[in-house]
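mind reviewing this stuff:

——
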Amino acid sequence: MTQSSGASRLPRPEIDAELRAGLAIVGGVFPPTITPDLIAFMRRSYASPPLPDILQGHLVDHLEHVVRGHLGDEIVISVFRSPRHGGPRPVTLYAHSGGLMFGDRFNALALNLDWVERLGAVRVSPEYRLAPEFPDPYAREDLFSTLRWIVDNASPLGVDTSRIMVAGASAGGGLAAGLALAARDRGGPRLCGQLLIYPMLDDRGTAVSTKQFDAVGVWDRVSNETGWRAVLGEQYRTDDVSPYIAPARATDLAGLPPAYIDVGSAEIFRDEAVDYATSLWHAGTDAELHVWNGGFHAFDIFAPHTTLAQGMIRTRNAWVENRLAD
């Protein structure tokens, strides 16, 4: 079934009933439409809980490192590992969500601590720099610097450089996809996978799904434009935009690591995600795509208790386990 909210609106897929019940609560933390004047509010409302609260009840070691990011500036990187798993371990480099304007390195940590505790993966989470204060290429180059730091410090970190997976959600999913492109083009390191969770891939905003969800759910068309304008400035929607920040612009997707892409059917990034998976297949690259019927953007973060979110998390984790297996 579809629903319409007036002649000026495109018909759109319905949001899952269980998820829809929680949207009123979500709106107080993450309004559906974000304009530049709300960036400061979002940096407060979308901030992660204190780290001790996130890690409570989990047997996970945590260390902080200060490393050189873009232009040699210092950035902070958090490393999480399980004391129960020895030997060189697989590693996930995780880029957080937040539209490239807000969020922090601990966003969604609770959702994927299972990778650390059960699979023994080392999670590396950089505090990449945010727009508009730090426009492109800061965020993506901070991520690439983090990737190089992992390789250069593989021995003290206790990681296996043949099992590095890049991962991210929303804006972080786009950064992870761009990082996979950059690693290929810059001669490595070779990645074992790219986990793209409802990724933000295209600044051009031409997809039908982008137009279907104005002021609906989480992260609508206007919010998306706010994020892209903040990070791209005058380059927004011009031919000067790099595929390392907007991976949908890439014309060659050959030679990339296997990808897992998931997205909701009731969100603006649906068509971008489907198109990117299709382009990966056309280039001969392995990709697994899941479109979760009735899912709004980031419903696994905002409603992790729901049936749909539990299925999404369980299916995603199975893929991660397969990619990071010994």
Summary: The longest helix spans residues 307-323.
